[in-house]
């Protein structure tokens, strides 16, 4: 999980003021009544009840405890009146860390702690089913070697080590969490010849240098360990079935699977440690002092190497096999447009109890399913279908949702209006979000309709703070929107309420949540109101309320940023002439389409058949950015508009074709990208023009 998976915040000052985009005057009046009823129907105490139940036990993907969580989710949605289905897959993965050891061998023999302390203040910390820290998809091995410190283990950090003459080959690398996805720390360590990798949360990033540590505060104590997957294949999903769903091995449809030897799974042992253990290593290192910016928060001068006298052993024996995981999807069928889907999702598997990550989002969504059920009983079922999806095995590498997207690819291409992701969606009190262009308006507009519980402001006003408008980020990696947005081209958003978190530690428990995340338990219902209003506003509009003008606004800014970056290494670069022309046409056509839709709705002249055809064409807009050739860094990533940064794993790459060239400092393919991007933008502009002419 990565809460809002956002990068490169963009001001929403261009957001359209079309509050009732997509509605006629009569349907607007009906919708106002419905939204008011929805707001008052939300049962705030339900969130706490569900969160407590979901987080009774640690529930890693593929374990019996996680199956019980899935059963609970199924039961609640079924009781609420949704049509609930399970979608099973057999994934090549581990359900635990196997056996592992980390110890100093010389100059002294010292076993190092690999698990959080039991705390009197947190009854959950003594649960006997809690385990050591581990990294899913670590390689197995038993190595004893000298130490090299690699700062955050980014591509630039390993390049810096090489530049300074530090040889990583055959050594055990220590890197701190931050700056990139942990899997890339492992990938780069392996590329440079490391024998093993230790990852830790430095107290400078979360620990005593930031403030009080758990249980007295919200920061990592000396035993807290960030677990997490290190999977870094060049696609998202099950490592053995790229582009295909990992359907059950005993099912009717047989899926061809790769042999594990054909994949790029890591071969070196990788383990996460707490800083209380890492200090025993860093405090004994004798080599060259680190460069500026590499010093962490432990009370020692950080050094690049440990010297020949300091040797550490890292042993990991982590077995992988086919593991059954299952998504749970509930549908509130639409009364008028049942084949147009608004999909809202969050995963439910966790590294331990998962109170903030992910199950605050899970609890909110199953509460929403109950509210939608109550609305349906009052005769207020949505016109479009609302699907509430609970994904499995996200923590292992966004697996469950990616397999579902691959399985449902054709249907999603035709039916999906939007995907809304709320991974860890109620993990604090600070509002945030990121979105594709067409959904930014609805995020902010619906935030204006919800009261923020801890002030007399709306959610919108709290979100924007002192600024004129809130900032909305661009979708990056790290969560379940990836397949929808970057593989299939479904407009997507991610958001919720965040705050300090004991991310992926054994301490992310109900005890932590009720003490620090939201002791008053007001944010669950608040976020449910926001999410529900967004879903219902999209579900009940005659015309899907995309902000079609926003494409040109955002694209203009993104290409200007890209040109600026390219000119830093290629002074002669003159820009993307074809793209510029295409954006001008897109801008004009976007305004034209927006005006045509508004005029047609105001006149009330559209027939049901015409409305259906308009919506069908609107659903096709985002697909203009889906390019079958895909990206050079991985053809699974088909969106020309956005992808995960393949070097950090979390950051958002807007215009990823260009960002990849920029990261390489290359000008070789810029002409090709001018062609590919201008063709996509021209296709989008053409679709808008044809739709305008048909209205």
Automatic annotation (TrEMBL):
Residues 576-687 form the Transferrin receptor-like dimerisation domain. Residues 327-515 form the Peptidase M28 domain. Keywords: Signal. Residues 1-17 form the signal peptide. CDD domains: PA_GCPII_like (cd02121). It comes from the Bacteria. Pfam families: PA, Peptidase_M28, TFR_dimer. Residues 143-209 form the PA domain. Belongs to the peptidase M28 family. M28B subfamily. PANTHER family: N-ACETYLATED-ALPHA-LINKED ACIDIC DIPEPTIDASE, VACUOLAR PROTEIN SORTING-ASSOCIATED PROTEIN 70. This is M28 family peptidase. It comes from Flagellimonas yonaguniensis.
């Amino acid at each position: 999980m990565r809460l809002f998976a956002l990068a490169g915040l963009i001001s929403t000052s261009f957001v359209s003021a079309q509050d009732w985009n997509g509605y006629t005057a009569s349907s607007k009046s009906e919708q106002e009544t419905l939204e008011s009823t929805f707001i008052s129907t939300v049962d705030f105490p339900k969130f706490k009840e569900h969160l407590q139940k979901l987080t009774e036990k640690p529930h890693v993907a593929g374990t019996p405890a996680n199956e019980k969580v899935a059963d609970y989710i199924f039961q609640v949605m079924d009781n609420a009146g949704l049509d609930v289905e399970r979608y099973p897959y057999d994934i090549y993965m581990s359900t635990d860390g196997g056996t592992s050891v980390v110890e100093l061998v010389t100059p002294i023999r010292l076993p190092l702690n690999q698990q959080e302390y039991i705390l009197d203040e947190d009854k959950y910390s003594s649960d006997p089913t809690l385990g050591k820290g581990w990294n899913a998809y670590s390689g197995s091995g038993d190595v004893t070697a000298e130490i090299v410190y690699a700062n955050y283990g980014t591509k630039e950090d390993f390049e810096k080590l090489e530049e300074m003459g530090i040889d990583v080959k055959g050594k055990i690398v220590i890197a701190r969490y931050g700056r990139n996805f942990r899997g890339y720390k492992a990938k780069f360590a392996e590329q440079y010849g490391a024998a093993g990798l230790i990852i830790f949360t430095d107290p400078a990033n979360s620990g005593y240098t930031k403030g009080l540590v758990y249980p007295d505060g919200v920061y990592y104590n000396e035993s807290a360990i960030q677990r997490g997957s290190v999977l870094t294949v060049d696609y998202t999903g099950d490592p053995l079935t790229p582009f295909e769903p990992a359907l059950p091995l005993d099912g009717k449809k047989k899926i061809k699977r790769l042999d594990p030897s054909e994949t790029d799974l890591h071969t070196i042992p990788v383990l996460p440690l707490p800083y209380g253990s890492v200090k025993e290593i860093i405090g004994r290192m004798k080599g060259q002092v680190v460069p500026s910016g590499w010093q962490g928060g432990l009370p020692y001068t950080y050094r690049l190497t440990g010297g020949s006298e300091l040797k550490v052993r890292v042993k990991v024996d982590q077995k992988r096999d086919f593991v059954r995981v299952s998504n749970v999807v509930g549908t509130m069928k639409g009364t008028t447009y049942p084949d147009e889907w608004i999909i809202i999702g969050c995963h439910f598997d966790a590294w331990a109890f998962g109170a903030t990550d992910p199950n605050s989002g899970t609890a909110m969504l199953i509460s929403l399913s109950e509210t939608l059920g109550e609305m349906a009983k009052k005769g207020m079922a949505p016109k479009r279908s609302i699907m509430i999806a609970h994904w499995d095995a996200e923590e292992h590498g966004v697996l469950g949702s990616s397999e579902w997207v691959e399985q449902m690819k054709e249907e999603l291409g035709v039916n999906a209006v939007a995907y809304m992701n709320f991974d860890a969606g109620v993990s604090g009190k600070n509002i945030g979000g990121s979105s594709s262009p067409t959904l930014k308006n609805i995020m902010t507009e619906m935030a204006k309709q919800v009261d923020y519980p801890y002030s007399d402001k709306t959610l919108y006003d709290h979100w924007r703070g002192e600024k004129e408008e809130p900032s909305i980020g661009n979708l990056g990696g790290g969560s379940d929107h990836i397949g929808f947005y970057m593989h299939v081209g479904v407009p997507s958003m991610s958001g919720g309420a965040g705050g300090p978190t004991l991310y992926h530690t054994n301490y992310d428990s109900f005890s932590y949540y009720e003490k620090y995340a939201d002791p008053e338990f007001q944010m669950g219902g608040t976020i449910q109101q926001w999410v529900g209003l967004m879903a219902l506003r999209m579900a009940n509009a005659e015309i899907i309320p995309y902000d079609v003008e926003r494409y040109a606004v955002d694209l203009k800014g993104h290409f200007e940023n890209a040109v600026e970056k390219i000119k830093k290494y290629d002074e002669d670069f003159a820009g993307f002439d074809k793209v510029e022309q295409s954006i001008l046409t897109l801008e004009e056509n976007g305004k034209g389409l927006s005006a045509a839709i508004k005029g047609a709705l105001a006149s009330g002249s559209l027939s049901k058949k015409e409305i259906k055809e308009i919506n069908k064409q609107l659903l096709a807009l985002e697909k203009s950015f889906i390019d079958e050739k895909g990206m050079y860094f991985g053809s699974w990533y088909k969106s020309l508009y956005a992808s995960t940064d393949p070097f950090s794993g979390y950051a958002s790459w807007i215009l990823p074709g260009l960002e990849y060239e920029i990261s390489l400092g290359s000008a070789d393919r810029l002409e090709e990208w001018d062609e590919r991007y201008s063709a996509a933008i021209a296709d989008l502009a053409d679709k808008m023009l044809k739709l305008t002419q048909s209205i």
